[in-house]
Amino acid sequence: MQSHIDCKVGQVLHGLGFDIMSFGAEAIRVKTIEIHKDVHNYINQLIGYYLSKDYRHAVSISNYLINTVYELIYNYELISKYWSETKEILIPQILNNKKYKNKVSLLVVNFFGSRADIQLGKQCETILEMLKDTVIKHMKNFNQLFFTRVNNELYVFVNNDLTYNFVSFYNSLIKDIELLAEDLRASNFAIGNHPVFYIYKFDINGFIEVSSEELNEMINIIKEEAKTKFKESAPPLVIVDISDRKLELQEKAKANLELKDIVLKKVKNKDVDIFVQWIERYHRVSELGNIHRHSIDQRTAQGTLERYNHISTLTNRQSHSGEEKNATSLPRLSTLYDKNLKNRFFEVLVRIKQGDNYIPAYKFINILQRENAMTLLDIAVISKVLENVDKIKAITHELYLNIYPPSLENDEAVGLLKELIKTLSQNEVMLNLELTEYAITTNKELFEKDMKDHLFYLALDDFGTGYTNYELIGELSESGLIKTIKIDGAIVKKILDSQTYMSMVESITMFCKRNKLRVIYEFVDSNQILEALTNIATSIDFPKEFIFFQGFHFHKPNALEEEYKKLIKPNPRDESVKV
Fold first, then answer.
1. What is the rounded distance in angstroms from the CA atom of residue 344 to the CA atom of residue 392?
2. Can you tell me the distance from the alpha carbon of 142 to that of 144, in angstroms, rounded to the nearest whole number?
3. DSSP letter at 318?
4. What is the CATH number assigned to the segment(s) 96-267?
5. Helix or strand (DSSP H, E) at 508
6. Is the dihedral of CA 339, 344, 350, 351 positive or negative?
7. Residue closest to 213 by CA, chosen among 264, 258, 154
8. Which of 93, 163, 245, 276 is 20 to 30 Å apart from 491, CA to CA?
9. Is 355 helix (H, G, I), strand (E, B) or coil?
């Protein structure tokens, strides 16, 4: 019989993979190896008793053997569970641990399609399985390499021991990954012109003195770069040796960690600012567009203007060359205050200040998502909205508020949300909760039972991407709980360049018309997009009162406080405008 080291189980337990998986749990690892050794001893005794026909002892020892095998399985599963739950934390610690100096390199293989896996659907999983099969093909023994999946990336730990002819092995592995990438690029998989795989290589020797926290942040920086770096045509496989950028990445990591501390502290202390972005009705866009048309009757224009108690400057009257725009084009609008509050509403946004400047939203959102702190942000935002109800009701009768799905499972967040709905209702302000279809599906009971007596509506956010359940929308529409669909900006901004995305918007718009749902087109950042969307809506005779636009073409987000001041302190230059 093979020794406890040479058998397959022994090779696994003494291999690179089990060594890495049990990092930080060495006592369990040592115990598991000892248990496996006991299994072999009991098997040898059982065989001896059986051959000597000592069946009584053979039966007795078989009971010990069975119990020991169960214990071995239990310990291995314990290590596997430990690794599965903590590997994202452990990997940076492994990379800067002296135990692995001169022993291990790490290749992080990022499937570039993972940044768009919503669009690729099951193809993403298929491609990752193909990648794993390619790596396994090079795995001659359990001490040579170990790989593990982290989200949509494959972390491949490679033993640098030159007795395995490391250089030849590494080159062969990279070559096969490159061939897979080329095959995928040539196939009908929806990959595009960016790299199929992006590999970043870590030589552990270069990161021994870097703290695990800094190293983890360096990995995050590289991941973000992988998502945005290649906009144009690129080779199917891109490899970056992180060691060459160690100092640069370390400085960025330190700055990011400092920013993380600031963000987390401010969110925990509810030290955030409420911003708003106005959502424009179709009839206001058309009406204000007419003000700019050369052929408009001046008295009609004046009559339109007089319905507003404050009108800020209409921009984009001229093109970059200084010439007037085409007479039929619609203007870019800044905030307009209509005395009839039913004619306007906004989305609540949040900003976090660092010194005299605001931190870009994408930066603090990324930080909070990585730290699983988005619920804390929701709690801070809801609290701030509650503090500012008087100002909100002075400028609108309706608002939209984004809620992060896990917040709906948090008692404090749900309690504050119920309080907000009640308070806004008492002040005659309607609340629309922006949620994805998935969030609504998984929290359907909360809305249909626990909150059925509260006055609010649901708005489907990011519609058209990811999980789209038309049956659910139909049920919610019939129950009167939903009245708005927001078409995701990632789709809207592509309609000028893609007939596919144009067709998607047309289909969703038709669905909204037939179900008498509002539609809000997000990311309306240019006059060309606005006109294309307007053409879609008018071509199907979509009632104007159901059509809304949101984007920088109309309004950039501004502090709630500033919007309130504009209303209560109208511009002196506009005092002549009749109310």
1. 12
2. 6
3. B
4. 3.30.70
5. helix 499-514
6. negative
7. 258
8. 276
9. coil
How far is residue 295's CA from residue 177's CA, in Å, rounded to a whole number?
Answer: 63
> 3-state DSSP call for residue 513?
helix
CB burial of 239-265 (b: ≥16 within 10 Å; e: otherwise) equals bbebeebbeebbebbeebbebbebbbe
For the cut 90, the answer to whether the pLDDT of residue 264 exceeds it is yes
In sequence order, the β-bridge partners of residue 280 are: 549
At the fourth CATH level, the homologous superfamily of domain 269-574 is EAL domain (3.20.20.450)
Cα angle 170-171-174, degrees, rounded to a multiple of 5: 85
Contacts of 141 (CB under 8 A, 6+ apart): 11, 15
| Span 500-549, pLDDT tens digits | 889 999 999 998 998 889 999 999 999 999 999 999 999 999 998 899 99
Tokens representing residue 456 in the block? 């609010």
Mean pLDDT to the nearest integer, 381-402: 95
pTM: predicted TM-score of the whole model, two decimal places: 0.71
d(CA 504, CA 512) in angstroms, rounded, equals 12
Token pair belonging to 473: 């929308």
Q: Which residues of 141-156 are buried (b: 16+ CB within 10 A; e: fewer)?
A: ebbbbbbbeeebbbbb
Determine which helix (DSSP H) or strand (DSSP E) holds 235, and give its type and residue range.
none
**Cβ atoms 122, 132 nearer than 8 A:** no
- Distance separating alpha carbons of residues 173 and 461, to the nearest angstrom: 42
H-helix or E-strand spanning residue 401: strand 398-402
The secondary structure of residue 245, as a DSSP letter, is G
> How do strand 353-354 and strand 398-402 relate by DSSP bridges?
unpaired
* Structure confidence by residue, pLDDT tens digits, 88-118: 889 888 888 888 887 888 888 877 644 444 4
Tokens 């509506």 correspond to 457
Q: Which helix (H) or strand (E) holds 217?
A: helix 212-228
Three-state secondary structure call for residue 566: helix
Q: Give the β-pairing of 518-521 and 547-549.
A: parallel
Residue 131 CB-density burial (10 A; 0-12 exposed, 13-18 middle, 19+ buried): buried
Choose among 366, 289, 380, 370: nearest CA to 329.
Answer: 289
How large is the C-alpha radius of gyration of the chain? 31
Q: Which two tokens stand for residue 146?
A: 């170990």
Do residues 96 and 212 lie in contact, with contact meaning Cβ atoms separated by under 8 Å?
A: yes
Q: What DSSP string runs through 273-300?
A: EEEEEEEEEHHHHHHHHHHH-TTS-HHH
Judge whether 110 and 197 are in contact, CB under 8 Å.
Answer: yes
> Is pLDDT above 80 for 564?
yes
- As a whole number, mean pLDDT of residues 136-150 equals 82
Helix axes 26-51, 55-95, angle to 10 degrees: 160
Task: Count other C-beta atoms under 10 Å from residue 509's C-beta.
Answer: 23
